[in-house]
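User: I'm preparing a small set of examples for a lab meeting where we compare how different chains pack in three dimensions. I only have the primary sequence for this one, and I'd like the structure in token form so I can line it up with the others. Please keep the answer compact; I'll paste it straight into my notes.
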Amino acid sequence: MLLVGLGRKRPARVPGMEPAQAERESLAELCELARSAGADVAGSVLQMRDAPDPATLVGRGKLEEIEIEARMHNAPLVIFDANLTPTQQRNIERTLTDRRVIDRTQLILDIFARHARSREGQLQVELAQLNYLLPRLAGQRTELSRLGGGIGTRGPGEQKLETDRRRIRDRVGRIQKSIEMVRKQRSLRREKRQAVPLGTVALVGYTNAGKSTLFNALSHAGVLVSPKMFATLDPTIRAVRLPSGRRVLVSDTVGFIRALPPALIAAFRATLEEVQEASLLLRVTDVSNPQHAEQDAEVEKVLGDIGVNGRPRLVVYNKIDRLPKEQLEELAASRGDKVLVSALKSTGLNELLERIDVAMPIDALVRLRLNVPLTDGRNLALVHALGRVTHSAVEDSSMRLEADVPESLARRLQTYVVS
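Assistant: Understood. Below is the structure token output for the 419-residue chain.
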């Protein structure tokens, strides 16, 4: 497989970077994506030009060089680090004869198709794939549902789809209805969770920042942890007890990446609702990655796209165990309000839980003295489950308690409050 990157002759996208450095980093990221999809990378080509060629992206001359390079490496697949228009892809395929050509979006879709496990995730991937393929049909009688094969050939379902646009649009409509049902089911589950007042915390960040490892360290959930990109597609939610005794719900979500296609964000709307409904965001950063500042900027862009820019958040610098001692000391001295952790080594987790406790914008703790009848087992259970009991004693047919409980529970217990 051969990778092709394109950079513009202009100032660097990131301050302090050489003009082509950002493009090289993007190409290196594409290489990691390809390996996550199971490919063997034979080589790469990076071209710098004033502007993309509207017909072939890289120009006819460069395209012939890429054909020679692919033939030398015997590469049957060429991946472009860009989102190709249907016209560009057709023109490139005419020159790169006998070689498959895919772009960055199609590669990401293939990885998503490999990693989607739940019915919801599979529906969302299929919807994104069909929306990607629809403008690329161009009347060709191409089989769209190839399963297996190689990179970019993982089709949207087991059923072979015809290239007729009307039938594909009908399929898109059915998938959208199914996803809407999933959203309603999620909404019902969310309402049931909200019946018992719990704050919600969503882990967000760049793909492979260590969110799932941190999620496991906080909740002992045992979700899949993998160095491959986009290993987590289906959100997982677990309850975590904070130092104050409060419990919060923590959700592990899909990672973000630069140039994430808008259609993909739209398709994963049901999943991203967990982020939109969260009371507090933990923006997890792989601080050992030299490009973490650029990655953070991409994450903030996606958060803006889904409308949660103003949501309370904590910035969590993960993977500090990978930093040299001098760099770690320098970071600790200048970290500001950032939390330094190593999810893998369970370092800094107590401080993180304390910071979540303070930052949680809802249900502040209230100290109450209560006299609850022993027959009211539900409220007694809620006090112990959601609060922190500092004293308790049974008197006659009731229990006298002194406890710190969330405000929402305190309102429910007003009839039992002892002045």
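A couple of notes for your slides: The chain is about 40% helix and 20% strand. The first strand starts at residue 2 and ends at 8.

User: Perfect, thanks.
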